[in-house]
Structures are given as C-alpha cells and as structure tokens.
Amino acid sequence: MLYWSPMLAVVLTILSGMVMFALLDVNPAKAIHTFFVAPVSSLDGIAELFVKATPLVLIAIGLSFGFQANVWNIGAEGQLTIGALASGGLALAFYDVDTPFLLPGMMIAGVLGGMTWAAIPAFLKTRFNTNEILTSLMLTYVALLVLSYLVHGPWKDPEGMNFPESRLFHEAAQLPVILEGTRLHLGGLLALLAVAAGWVVMARHIIGFQIKVIGMAPMAASFAGFKKARIVWLSLMIGGGAAGLAGMIEISGPIGQIIPVISPGYGFTAIIVAFLGRLNPVGCLLAGCLMALTYLGGDNAQIEMNLPNAVTGVFQGMLLFFLLACDVLIRYRLRVVSKKVPEAA
Amino acid sequence: MTELTETPTEVITPRLELIGITRRFPGVLANNNVNLKVMPGEIHALLGENGAGKSTLVRFIYGVQKADSGKVFWQGRECTIPSPRIARQMGIGMVFQHFSLFDAMTVEENIALGVEPELAKDNLADKIQRVSAQYGLLLDPGRYVHTLSVGERQRIEIVRCLLQKPKLLIMDEPTSVLTPQEVEDLFKTLRRLSGEGCSILYISHKLQEIKELCHTATIMRMGEVVDDCIPSEETARSMAEMMMGKNLLSPVRANRHEIGAPQLSVHGLSVKSPHHHGTDLKDINFEVRSGEILGIAGIAGNGQRELMEVLSGEVPVGNADAVVMNKKSVGQFGPKQRRKAGMGYVPEERLGHGAVADMSLWENAFLSAATGKNLLNKGFILIDRSTEFAVSVVNGFRVKTPGVKHAASSLSGGNLQKFIIGRELLQDPNIIVVLQPTWGVDAGSAAAIRQALLDRAADGAAVLVISQDLEELFEVSDRIAVISGGRLSESQPTESLTVDDVGLMMAGLSHRGADPEPAPGTGEVEGPRVN
Fold it and tell me: What residues of B are in contact with residue A206 (Cβ under 8 Å)?
C-alpha cells in the first residue's frame, strides 16, 4: 500500500493542477499537455529530461541513506555548490593542461568538496549533539555566498567584460556527450551507476543494514553494537559526496563554467525525490525523472502559454504535500469523536 | 458468588455477556465464536497462552477494537461499545499491563488527564484520597509519578478506574510487576471490590494466583474458548494443561553438575544512570561461575536496566577492571567485542531492542550473529547462511512462524522471545546474561526458555538471570541476590531462602547485605536525586 501512495499523490497533483489552471482561465487539458507531455515528445526532450534528472537522482540516493538512518541532511544544495567549486577550481587551475586525468580528478574533487561541507554538521552533531537540520541548512547559504564571492572576484573571467562568470572550461574539463546531437552527457550514466550501487549497498551490505536498523530501532542498533556516531558520519559523507558529485556534473556538463547560479534548487528538490522514491534507489530514479519533468514543463509552460515560472514550484510543492498527506491518511484514519452515549443501563 | 447460591430461584442477569464474538486479522482468527458470561461481583479469570486471543477479546470489550461479528449484552441489554470513552461511561474500566502515565506530572494531574472532564473539575484530590482510603490503595495525589514504585503506579491506574465507579474492571497481567506483598494488597482490594458487586475480568499467566483469587475461569486456546473451570477445584498444573492442550513439562535441573571457575566477575561497579529518573548503580560486586545460574531479583526500576546495559557493553564503564570476563578486563568493550569474548545477552524489550520489529527473522538473526556465525563476506551479507541460521533457531527452539522471511512483529511475544533466546544460545556463548527472560510470555514458552537456560548451565556456561518473577528465579537459580536502589545484596544459595525473604529484600525493607550508607569511594553517584 505504501508504494501506491506516490502514484496516488501524482494523480492528485495533476487533478489539482487542472483545477488551478481552470481557475487561472487556462484550458486545463492543454496546460497539462504542455506541462507533462510536450516536453518529452522529442528525442531532444527526453535527453533534456535525463540531463535534469541526473543531479536529482544522484543527490536523492545519497540523501536517502541519511534519511533511513534518521539523519536529516537538508543542506545538499550547499554541498552541491562546494562540490562544484572544488572541481571547478581544479578545472580553472589546470586551464592550460590537456590531460585525460583532469575529469576523474574533478570528480574526486567534487566528491571531497561535498563531503567537506557535510563534515561540518557531522562533526557538530557527533561532538555537540547539534541539530543537523539547522546546521546543514544554514551552511547552504554560506556556500552560496562563497560561490558568489568567487565568481564576482578571484575566479572572474579576465576577458569576460566584467560579467560575474568564470572562464569557459577547456574541452578536457567537460563531460563528453553520450547521445549525439543532444546535451545528454556522461553524468547520466554515473547516475544509473549510483542507482545500482545504492541498491546493492542498501539491500546487501552491512552499511545499508546498519543504517536501516539505526533508523527503525536505535536500541536494537546499540544491542547489536552498531555505533551511532559512525553511522551519522557515514550517512552525511554519502549524502555530501553524492551532492558534491552532482555539482561537478552540473558545471562540467550542461554549464561548462562557474556561474552565480549553478543549481535551480536541485539540492532541495532532491529531498522530495527521495521521499517520493520511498528512499529506495530505484524509486529515486523514477521520482527523479518525474521531478525533472516538472522543471521542463515549467519552462515549456512559460514559453508556450505565458504562465509564470512559479508553476514549477507549485507543482513540486503540491506533489510533496499530497505525498505526505497520502502517507498519513493511508496509515491513520480520521475519526470524528461524538459525545453521544449509547442507551445502556 | 454467594449471591448466586443464595437466590437460586431468581435469574440473575449477567453483568456482561458475549455471544459468538469473531474477529479475523490477516492470516489469523484471533477470536472464533467466543462466548463469555461475567456475573455481578464475580472475579472471572481469562486464561490462555500468548496469542490465544485474550487481549483481542478484552480490547474489544473496552471498545479499543471492533469485532467482525457477535453480540454484546451489557446488564441484559444488547449494545455496542464503539470506543473506550463510551466503555468508561457505561461503567467498564481497564488497567493495562503497560501504564500510560506521565513521569513528570503528579498523581492528581495524571488522573485528571484520564477521566471525564466533569469528574476532574472540582476537588479531584479529595476524591482520590477518599477512594484510595476506602480500598486500601495508599496514594498521595501530590507526589510526582517518577518518585513512585511500579506498585504505586499501578494504584494510580486502579484509582483512576475506581473514580468512575466501574461495574466491570478489566485487569491485564496486573501482578507481573509487583512484589509478593504488593500482590497480597492488590488481592485485598480486588476482593473488596468484588464484595461490593463490581465484576472483575482478570487476565494472568500466574495460575497459583488465579487459584487463590478467582471464582471462575474461562480458558482460551487459538482464539477459541476451550474450557471453563472453578479454579479453586483445580491444580495449577491441570489448568496449565487445559490452557496448552497438552501435558506440561516443568523444567528439570540436571543432576548436580560441576560448578567451575568464575566466568563473569564484577568488582566495585558504580555507574551513573544515563536515563532520566534512572537508578545509579552503587558499588556492585558479584561473580558467576561456569555451570551455575545466578538470579538477581528486584522490583522494576531498581537498577536492573542500568546493570544490563553495563554488562552488555551498551554503556561502557570507565574502569575496565570493573567487569571481568574469563580473566579479561572488558569494562570498556562494546557489545560486539563482548560477544566476541563469549557473551550472549537478551535485553528486556523484545521489539525494538532485542529485535527490529519491521525486519524479517533472518535479518534479526543476522543482527547479533553477524560476526559470531560468520555471516559476512567482505562487508556483504551472506543471505543464505543467515537464513540457514535463522531456520536452525526456529527449529531448535520450536518458534511458531510461517517462515523466516516474516517480520519479527508478526510473532507472538512468547515465540519472539524463544527466537531471541535461541539466537543468542546457538552462538555458543560461555556467559549468558538475560533480563526478564519470560516477561509476558506464555507458560509453555516460559518453560522452554527456562529449560534452555538450565541446559546451557549444565553444559558449563555461566548464566545470569535478572528477573522480577520470583517463581522463575527459584526455579532456575543456584544462588539469588537482590537489587534494590542500585545496590546488590550478597547472593545466597537458593535452598536457604524463602519467597518471603526475597520479597522483603526486594521491597528494600531489609538491608540484608545492601548497605543503606553510601559506600566510600563512590562520590560520583551522590547526585541530587528526588527519590
């Protein structure tokens, strides 16, 4: 039944979307078509879907490890940013060097960057029992300010007419396109690899087992001798590393340089993806594609029907809202309490 | 019962009559066509193994659960009981096995939360005092719950019911947390209530108590009523056999076997409780030798949980020498290392501590046996071997389950406990520490578990049993010590003790070996504490 909940949420979101469009005096059927069907009616569109889904799926898988262990890392956006900066910094440092080792180096730098940023909440939580929701969220804004400082200052393109952008990366620092004529790049394969690896670790490895036990029954975890601090570190490192890698994929894939806005909120949207995908790597893949579609649909609706871009946010919000509502109402029943006493002696 | 015999010509309407109650859960028939009649003023026992359907039935009577079919007659009139609130208004009260009290609130506040608002309005404290004096349930409305013993907490629940002047009081396993003296007091109260015409539906596994207290008994097995009897005319054994439908084997001790060298020794162990309102351990000393069973008696909340955590390694001790396993100082070892050194242990809570409710049996087998049984290969779980091990536990300990792929939560308490004990014992530990091994477990499973512990001791393991169940301790232990207020008495050979001796020590009235003065050198334990 719990697996039906996401389906139900999607249906309810589309129905409410239609009501919303009707109230806005837009033909609902046409709007839904523009939003959910038109964007993926061409090969190019499908490739775009995977380009957008790649960071979402990667981050969501990373986060779902933490969420299963009740470690609430919601700062993936910041970890993505720092991962992008670490790998982008490497690309800029070796701007003149053409070597096949640059891309792998950037991947490692991206992962380490994300991990470093996630290490701060991990340290604070295990050492001082700080709430990781707050620390990881607040660090997101710090990361965005670091990005802003770098693109407006030291890393600004010297020949860029003073635009706040870095130089365009060299060929060797860009992810190769894997589908000719589209933007679909190697990152898509990495995301698929992450799905497979995530599933194996979750279902078959002791790390996944420990994470599940800690989340479901903390006392049983201590009975078995699993160390809580270790799991907190591990899950934040997995989440941070995945987000950092997503950051690297964004700047060396579709973007190709460092710009003031690297991600349209992938780090936050991935939280919805993780829950919509039931914290399961395969589920995250499906949910990530659906979420990517809302991004594409939003752009499309903006161009074709003159609808505000906020429609994307509204759809994502509704989806999460209905998902949570379905989860609660499937598990619990609402009851109206009456004060009436039956006729009894 | 006297009024029944005094008025043979008049037909007395039963207080409660159930006809053909049936309730099906996915995969089980929890209640099948159950008929039950409770007369006014009668103390009626409901007997049965775990999973026999008693809880489902009383939860139905109290309006917590619905039945698929069947009729209820309350004082002769057919009715439905849609919710506990309505049950209370009709005059049905229930004291659950697990109390629902807020530790940080007073007795009065707790009672106010659980009764009808009209009743809580004025002079609740006076009403509480009146009722508690009337029924001999001493209770101070202004005391905070965390300062009370378990027996006193139960009194709160009983007073809460009595304030609503019930005509039927349901008691689920009320004596499992009480000392023998407290049980006596409870029985006095129940007899007085019965004398005043209040019916009592009494659920218990303790057959001796039922014999002593109850007028009639209804015996359930596998969801059906299988028998009725007058407990005073039966023996505990005959009732147990009716309950299980087969001849009961009582645990047998092997002929005096060799008692060997100390396997587990604890010296001068003092630990501050990591829990709110917990009990600090103060200068605890004992030894368990190979081939013997040491029993530790005590009322809940006197440091048993803390002692268990320290022995299992879930809470490490600063001084490594305070806990010695087989000449190795293990005070700072975690649970995994202690298992490796040869310890197996069973915590009190089955679901959530000893096992993960939503995980399958094989995953739960893997939980503690991963290293002991080599169920890991380079970090990957060997599912086949884990399944095999789980199956061997299920077969070896007669765990009733459709298969090891089913979740731990699908097992009844007794079966899950057999599974957990089996999982630990089949790892061949030479030291076994168990807390409340048969708490809330049916008689058949309890006997099997006790027998398994005796067998392990006979094979040369050192076994420590911490329990509130005196019958159990007298049945299995070679020596018994008592824990009270975080201090442990000297252990005495079981033959030299009586149940009453131990009961008095448990209540803290006699300080046989338990020094009331703080021991020197344990300054850290003297924190500001309310009790």
Answer: 370, 376, 379-381
Q: Which residues on B lie below 8 Å from A219 (Cβ)?
A: 347, 349, 352-353
Q: Tell me whether strands B168-172 and B92-95 are parallel, antiparallel or unpaired.
A: parallel
Please report the number of interchain residue pairs, chain A to chain B, with beta-carbon separation below 8 angstroms: 84
Q: CA dist B273 to A329, B150, B295, B323, B405, Å?
A: 40, 18, 22, 17, 37
Structure tokens at A344: 């009894």
Residue B518 has pLDDT above 60, yes or no: no
What's the pLDDT band for A160 if we cut at 50, 70, 90?
confident
Chain B residues in contact with A68 by the CB 8 A cut-off are none
User: What mean pLDDT is predicted for residues B45-56?
Assistant: 81
- Computed from CA positions of residues A233, A236, A238, A240, in that sequence, does the dihedral angle turn out positive or negative? negative
Q: In this complex, do A213 and B356 lie within 8 Å of one another by their Cβ atoms?
A: yes
CA A109, A113, A114, A115 dihedral sign is positive
Contact between B381 and A227 using a beta-carbon 8 Å cutoff: no
The distance of B433 to chain A (nearest Cα, Å) reads 13
> Would A84 be classed as within a structural domain?
yes
* Cβ–Cβ under 8 Å, residues A177 and A183: yes
Q: How far A76 CA sits from the closest chain B CA (Å)? A: 27
The boundaries of the domain holding residue A263 are 44-284
Domains and CATH numbers, chain B: 2-244 (3.40.50.300), 262-342+429-525 (3.40.50.300)
Distance from CA of A280 to the nearest CA of B (A): 16
The rounded mean pLDDT for chain B is 84
Is A292 contained in some domain? no
- Asked if the structure places residue A134 within a domain, the reply is yes
Query: The complex's ipTM?
Result: 0.83
Tokens coding A86: 């670490």
What is residue B1's predicted lDDT score, i.e. its pLDDT?
Answer: 43
Q: What is the pLDDT of residues A213-230, one digit of tens each?
A: 999 999 999 999 999 999
- The closest alpha carbon to B37, from B4, B70, B74, belongs to B74
The answer to whether A230 contacts chain B (CB < 8 Å) is no
Asked if residue B522 has pLDDT above 50, the reply is: no
Q: Decide if A344 and B79 are in contact by the 8 Å CB cutoff.
A: yes
Q: Is residue B269 scored above 60 in pLDDT?
A: yes
Q: How many structural domains is chain A composed of? A: 1
